[in-house]
Write a structure and sequence with these properties.
This is Dynamin N-terminal domain-containing protein. By secondary structure, the chain is α/β, with parallel strands linked by helices. About 65% of the residues lie in helices and about 5% in strands. The strands form 2 sheets. It has a 9-stranded mixed sheet, sandwiched between helices. It has a 3-stranded mixed sheet with strand order 2-1-12.
Length: about 900
Amino acid sequence: MARLVEALNRFFGRVEILALGLENERSAAEAALAKGMPLEAREHARSILSVLPDSAVGLALWADAAEEAWIDHEVVAALSELARRVPWRADVWLRLGRAGQRTGWDGARDALERAAAAPLERAAAAPEERDAARLALLDLCDLDLAAGDPARAQRWLDRIPAPLSATPDRDVALRRAECALARGDLEGARAAADPLGEPAAIEGRAALVLARLTLAEASAAASAAAASAAAGALGAAALAPADVARVLDLGLRALVLDVPGADELCAALVAASRDVLVVDRVRRVVRAAGALDAPTWAAAFAFAEGRRDDARQALARGLSAGDRAAAAALLRMAVEMRDLGALEALAARAARSPSGGAAAPLLSADLVRLRDAAALAAEGQGAAALDALDAVTGDGAAWADDLRRSILRGWLPEESGAAGPRAAAAAWGDVLRELARTARLLDRLDLLAATEALVVERERPLRAAVVGEFNAGKSTFLNALLGEDVAPTGVLPTTATLHWVAWAPDPFARIVVRGGQDRVVPHAALKDTLRALAAAGDRVARVFIYAPIERLKRVEILDTPGFNAPDPDHIAEARRAFDEAHVAVWLLDAPQAMKESERRVLAEIGALGVPVQILANKADRLRPDALGEVLAHVRDSLAASAITSLAPPIAFSARLSLKGRLGDEAALAASGWAEVEALFDEQIVDASDALRERALRRKAGRIAAELAQAASARAAEDREAVRRARAEADRRRESAAYLHRERRAIAAAIDKALEPARRELAADLRPIAALPEERKRTDPGLRAYVQERLVARLSGPLSAEIARAARDGVGPGGRGAEGAGEDAARPAAEASPRAAAQVRAVLMGMVAVHDAPDELAARPIEGVIEAAIDAFAMALSAEAEEPVPPPASAAVEQRAQALRAAFEAPPAPAVA
């Protein structure tokens, strides 16, 4: 950057210096600066100022000399005085701001902002002024990036005009990429970094940006492809060798060039690496810099060597010593390694320091919430912990999701027994409350009802469905099982329906008729009533059979229609039994067992997860040798179809079994019922708790899967709405920057475009011209009329022209316009009532301060238009600053997905 004295010599001249005989001092000072003797130049400058304290040239010489001598406090003093002398000079404010940053001066940022206020359009400022304003905007961007405010940093960049040449502005592109990375916008970072190409050997900052971008992209791809959350927990750990090599090359280049942030990236890469060549390469660079004992590097190499405790201790020592780098590394370790101990160390350090210490700004609100949630989970308050985790959206979001999944998985444990692991009782109170909560939030009343049905189902006996094809003997088997002739047999398939057999203190049956009144009849009248209803054309929806049979207190029976019935409604009813049943007993017709139709339905039952016990009925119709062949065929068919039976299939005769159960001892002995009875008791009655648990999990899992799908759809809509809102905010911000930057040229163009509206206004105000001057100045009615007419005639066209200029300046390919859809094509005046209101306010103010308002139609108003453009731009900026709320359904989606994953994963080990 050129010396200040060179620019100010041209502006001020040397009349005062010549008049006071100080020309020799001035020329000596400039000669000393040219020879690289700043201290000598400083003395000559101070000599000029001792005679002429307000000399702009003397102050400029003093500032140049002090800056080259690295006497920054004198630079601030000299430039502060010079800025008061020439407050319009952007280059003076820029140098003052930079010197102020070096000395920690409180006014440094304000000085940079004043430098950035200089006009950047080529016709309005000298080249050094434009350059100074551009550099000030870049410095302000850097300040906000360092402060963790990438959105504000981006706004400074938006005020820098695009270069006229095809060569991109590398400084702006670099910072745009940094802003996008800080926001987590990988697509934006990639687009911004594309013009950078491969950085030159000395471009350390660009090398660091590309290293961070490569690391972020590779980590995102690895996390998306990983089957488990742990694979994505540590970004660098999942990188491909080629990505590691590129990140390492770029990161080490930035480290050698001492770019801020390079040590953090390289240390993280080392900590996550298990490649001895990578670790050794970095170690050589760090050793050459004499930084091996620094806590951050000591911890990184300890991590690489598997010494996790040593790493934590090294970082804790640095934390105790107030080492901010160690604190940041400890925080990174806590988040990436899911280390609550490291998080507690940071929290304890912040609590011990009266001012918060180095750790205070590192322990974000998100991490505090996560720590509190972990404590609640450890105390068994899973629901409260989930509520706390819902608010974790930034730091530690992946960790929060791990913890969320762990809590929900803990609600579905397993226990080990002699027969191996099996599902223990889930924490159904918590699980069902979570399902109901999610269903209510998503307005899924159907799934809420299904969840409430599970609450009732938990208290009901086990439900076993007897299924098979028509005429397989299902009702006869059921009667034999109950020891009474309860279920109707011999009913035609056209009248068959689902029969629900349950316990009651008195025997009766209830027939539910579609569109008619229920019938309540004794058992003996059930068959005749069903036949009569069929003959009358009434459709039976369901039959409930109640009996005071002790076994029904533990197991309710569903007797289903045959799957080969001609009525599709009956087949649908039979399939519906799978949803209601906890276990299915499939009866085969032994003489024609395992037909293709049976295999298809059995496979369907297996796919639904319903446990099945296979029985072969009508064994009395086969010879013993043929029966053995049938059972072998059944076992082979089951194995070939990957269908599992709870116990190996057995053969029996339901007909003989029923006769035996009703008193025929010989029939009972010949029926094979004793083996069926023992199997039913062992595999179904005695296992009823485990079977019910399995069924409840299956049904709750289906509800959870539907809720997760609904939550994802709702969250996708919300994310799209947020994306569009942010795109619109970016478009407004970019439009505001363009309007502010080009307001003079835009005002000149708009002034011409408003000629038709101004002629109409002149016609409206013409009657006032004949009135006395005194009345024009004092009559409030006249002023109100002028104001109303002026606003009515000019505000709409003026707002539309400004909006059109903004749209044309940003163009359809603007950063904010992309994806904004129809909103991007609308004039900003339509999309921004606030901006149009600001234009009206400017016009009203013009009338209010004018002594002769009727003359306004004939006078140039280019300055007013400029003010209106600025007001319009400020309104757009204000609207762009309004916070965009996060997707409202994001937390609901995370919890719903975690609950679905909990049901899909193998049962979690039971907690002792």
